[in-house]
Write a structure and sequence with these properties.
alpha+beta, 5 helices, 212 residues, three-stranded mixed β-sheet
């Protein structure tokens, strides 16, 4: 038979077996909270005392700032020059591709001139066979067509106003029928390749007749 002391002790032990989270935590009053220590940076900042700069130091800073501005301006100029160089190189590459056949076409222009002179001679010679005329004309037209497809364009100056950008004045001729400054005769055809002048037309320019 249990005695009264053992029963009381067992009852007290059961009361203490409550979960820890159920036990009330001790309240911390505001005045009892631990003080937050100062950070090392704040302590160092409090120890820094501004020291006035000497005139020599101020002058040195001004010189350094002037050099920095000079280097910045030089960098900007060199960057702009390099950008212009890239654009110019890209444009030159594009032009090289566009006008790659110009040298060949320049060499073929005298061939066209020879064909035209041959045609003129055949037409002037009444004894030439019609088949010869037709054959030369056919070859000439084939050559012209091929060069036109490659980008070669004739400059026809006959009856036009003299244009120094397209024509080359070989001589002048007095004329009462053709206005002064107009082309009287075209001696040699001119050519453009992709809107670039490769050979000006050789022309004779009209001028007013001399007063009697």
């Amino acid at each position: 038979m249990e005695n009264k002391f053992e029963k009381k002790h067992a009852k007290g032990a059961k009361a203490d077996e409550r979960p820890l989270e159920e036990k009330p935590a001790a309240a911390i009053l505001p005045d009892e909270r631990p003080a937050c220590p100062k950070q090392p940076e704040a302590q160092v900042a409090e120890l820094i005392v501004p020291v006035p700069m000497t005139p020599a130091q101020i002058e040195q800073l001004k010189q350094q700032a002037a050099k920095a501005d000079e280097f910045r301006e030089r960098f900007l100029r060199e960057a702009a020059d390099f950008e212009n160089y890239k654009k110019r190189a890209a444009r030159e590459r594009q032009e090289a591709v566009t006008f790659a056949n110009e040298v060949l076409l320049r060499k073929l222009m005298p061939v066209l001139d020879s064909f035209e002179m041959a045609l003129a001679a055949i037409v002037a010679d009444g004894a030439a066979a019609p088949s010869l005329q037709a054959g030369v004309l056919m070859v000439y037209n084939q050559l012209k067509s091929t060069l036109a497809e490659a980008g070669l364009e004739e400059i026809d100056a006959r009856g036009k106003v003299f244009d120094p950008n397209l024509h080359e004045a070989v001589s002048q001729q007095e004329s009462a029928e053709v206005p002064e400054g107009n082309v009287v005769q075209q001696i040699r055809k001119g050519y453009r390749f992709r809107n670039r002048l490769v050979r000006p037309a050789g022309v004779v320019v009209a001028k007013k007749p001399a007063a009697a």
